Amino acid sequence: MSHQGRKFLQRLIRSAEAKNSRVILALDLLGKGRLELRDRAISLIRELGEDLAAVKVNFHLLLPLSILSDVKKICVEAHEMGLQVIADIKLNDIASTNLLTTSYLWRAGFDAVIVNPIAGYEGGLQPLLEDARIREKGVIILGYMSHFGAQYTYGLPLNSSLYDRISTLSELFVSRALDWGADGLVIGATYPKTIKKTRQIVGDRLPIFSPGIATQGGDPKVAIKAGTDFLIVGRGILEAKDPLRTLSSLRKKTWPPKIRVIRE
Ligand code: XMP
């Protein structure tokens, strides 16, 4: 797979290969105080960083923390550990609001953002995708979410007479992610058949990121066999008795010598 001009992917691959890890930690921390949350995130990054390819930050931290001080500090720490930082906000708005949002994310130091393709391209995601490319940031598109109800939305059948070889809403999003020059797709580990189908559609042109491991029932090995590249894990590691041991064991059992797709 060529990632010419796709700097986020190049950095992510470098980090994954340096750590022999395809695991992305969801920093979904629960706590009362702002500083307690920030410091816990930083100490987890230091403690677990050697076994990770990246970290993902969601509203658990984005809402209580200050974006340009606390979150920025978390991004700095992650970069010092050689980790990429992904903002999981499933952004879904008109272009001007999307650009305002990502301007804060990029200033805080994020490397990539997860967006919702339902916003569409013109007047929706196009300016963000173009701006991200110029700034060497990544845009990852939701292809099929990990929760149970996703099958009633992402899995909706489409009229095949309107769309050539596309039979579900998810497949349409996958095809759009390719057309729009996105940097990756999120497909829940809980839907390995969809991962397989997505891999067939995208070939080695886009990496697949899979949340839904462990707590939501997804099996990391099954997801990898189906074609996923990166495993997103939160509670399965954060709530483990020994997070480092749990992560380390997951890293080892999911890092085969031959990694497909994400090689440059
Ligand atoms: P757990 O604790 O279930 O956390 O390992 C998963 C993390 O990933 C987020 N999540 C998703 N993010 N598309 C996404 O972009 C999805 O389909 C999806 N499913 C879960 C979740 O919010 C948490 O941060």
Task: Characterize the structure shown.
With 264 residues, the chain is of the alpha/beta class. The chain has a single domain (7-250), classed as Aldolase class I (TIM Barrel). Helices cover 45% and strands 14% of the residues. The protein is built from eleven helices and eight strands. It has helices at 7-19, 34-48, 59-62, 67-80, 95-108, 121-134, 169-179, 192-202, 220-226, 235-238, 243-253, and strands at residues 23-26, 54-57, 84-91, 112-115, 138-144, 184-187, 208-210, 230-233. An eight-stranded parallel β-barrel has the order 1-2-3-4-5-6-7-8, surrounded by eight helices. Helix 2 runs parallel beside helix 4, helix 4 crosses helix 5 and helix 8 (192-202) runs parallel beside helix 9 (220-226). The longest helix has 15 residues, at 34-48. It is globular, with a radius of gyration of 17 Å. The mean pLDDT is 94. The structure holds xanthosine-5'-monophosphate. Xanthosine-5'-monophosphate is lined by residues 26, 28, 58, 88, 90, 114, 142, 145-146, 186, 188, 211-213, 215-216, 232-236.
Keywords:
single chain; alpha/beta; TIM Barrel; 11 helices; 8 strands; binds xanthosine-5'-monophosphate
Strand order of the largest sheet: 1-2-3-4-5-6-7-8
Q: What fraction of the residues are assigned to beta strands by DSSP?
A: 5-15%
The overall pLDDT average reads 94
Mind telling me the CATH superfamily name?
Answer: Aldolase class I
- What is the level-2 CATH architecture name? Alpha-Beta Barrel
Question: End-to-end span in angstroms?
Answer: 5 Å
H/E element sequence: HEHEHHEHEHEHEHEHEHH
CATH-assigned fold name = TIM Barrel
Please state the CA-atom Rg, rounded to the nearest Å: 17 Å
Q: What is the overall silhouette?
A: globular
Assembly type of the chains comes to single chain
CATH class: Alpha Beta
Small molecules held by this entry: xanthosine-5'-monophosphate
Query: How many β strands by DSSP?
Result: 8
Catalogue the unreliable spans: none
As for the number of domains, it is: 1
Q: What would you call the structural class?
A: alpha/beta
**In DSSP terms, counting alpha (H) and pi (I) runs of 4 or more, how many helices?**
11
Largest sheet: 8 strands, parallel, barrel
Q: Give helix % range.
A: 40-55%
